[in-house]
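Dear support,

I submitted the protein below through the web form. The confirmation email said the job was done, but the results page showed an empty box. After a refresh the structure appeared. I'm attaching both so you can tell me whether what I see now is the final result or a partial one.
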Amino acid sequence: MERKSANESMTRITSSPSPGVPTVVGGTTKLEHSFADVVIVGGGVAGLCTACALAELGMRVLLVEKKDRLAPNSSSKNEGWWHAGTQHGYGIDDPEEAVRVAKRCLYGTKWLMGMVPFAVEEVDQPAFALLNDEDGAERAESRWTAAGVPFVRSKPSALRALAPTLRTWPGPVYRVEDRTIDNTVLFRWLGTRIRALGGTIMTASDIQFLGAESAVISNTDGDFLVRPNCFVHAAGISTGDLLKKLFDFDLGVRTWQSHLLMTKRLFPPTVLVLDTGGATVVHHDRVSLTGVNGEASQVSPFTGEELPGARDALTSALTNLVGSPHLGRFEVVACAKADRGGDGKRRSVEAVWGEVDATNHFYLLPGKMTEAPFAAHGLAGELHRRYRDEEVSLRPCDKFSEDEQLAAS
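What the results page shows now:
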């Protein structure tokens, strides 16, 4: 891989001239240091997965997170539902997109089980997917089969045997492989892995860009001017605003707010009603988190305040599942997710990544947390091809592709 020299990669801002090759920016003397090939902005699941993949390839990565802890926003403020393609394979209207997203979720599930299986909770409890009526069965089963989503048709009585408080369900019931995970275990593992591979993580750090090629990172340890090969923007909701400010590039990022009802544990298994308005109930030890399929509203900005009608939608969906639940103490939690564009009517859950107009600035929006490994690995492959390791021989198709690009230019 082509790497910038020590005098091109990082600058430590000092109050007086220091040995080395000084560069003066804004009247401040800076000392050059070798540091990073790639700077990743955002320490949520997208940034962490990308940093880990690039570090596995031997790239020197620097991950910058504004808050004092990793995954402070959307990545931690969700239900911890690691999808196996069940919901999106059925719920997305466009069948090709539904199968595509389901396959990406399956990719993420296989990666998780292979790399961080100890992040999975409730390993001894099954998960069930429910449909309102038989009309949806053919759609669900044909799409799941096309995507390779694992499922087994079950009987409502089998579900009630494990969860007697549920009302008798009138529609199809399936055993599925969706998982509940402890996000904090996943994020801890990713951070540990990044550092073990020589990467650097800076939390409680601000980043200020000085054009397209460099930026100043500031924290309690000082100020650093970085000049990496490229930047990756994986800061979720704020990614669009940053790229608009830097390059007048409209990524079309939208913010969607949904809600979770947090209660004492309601019953043992995970239960997912897949039709719009249905309750999805996952568990973490003694706590249940209930969401509502399709309950998402576009907001700007996201304030974290509960939206009108959210509580009624949550309790109505749960009542349809269990009758009249005795919730006891409960709390409504607001969640925010980012997507790109879409048709203006619904939230897209499809991961997107790419480059901003040949600037060496890349962006990544994971769609769903479960898609983050797929998206991160896709972007890592793209950056590998852009910044190759000179010790590794090219394949004939690589050379052919480079010749074609050269001829086209």
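Response: this is the final, complete result; the empty box was a page-load delay. The chain has a mean pLDDT of 88.
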